[in-house]
Amino acid sequence: MRRVTWFVGGAVAGAAGVGYAKRAVRRTAAQLDPKQVVRSTTGQVRRRGGDLVEAIREGREAMRTREAELRARRDGRIDTLHAHVGPADQLLVDGEPVEVGRVIVLRDAR
Length: 110
Known about the structure:
The protein has 110 residues and is mainly α.
């Protein structure tokens, strides 16, 4: 009786496995349809292209900002706190100690 039980259980498991595999293959085959592949690839290329354009814009903006900062330093329009704060001095912002390199001072150029 045990052999029959195991045989029937194995047959049921095998049939279920075959049914699952058949559905999975059909689903995959539908996704590999040439039209579906073209649609999917086109969508991915558009998304990646948008990401690339945004990255280039951000890079150019960062480049312009850094270039303006370097030109201002060269022309003497930017003054660093390192020149005014000694090693034994402590810089406070709103009563809290802060590292000198973490402070940005903006002046109105009017």
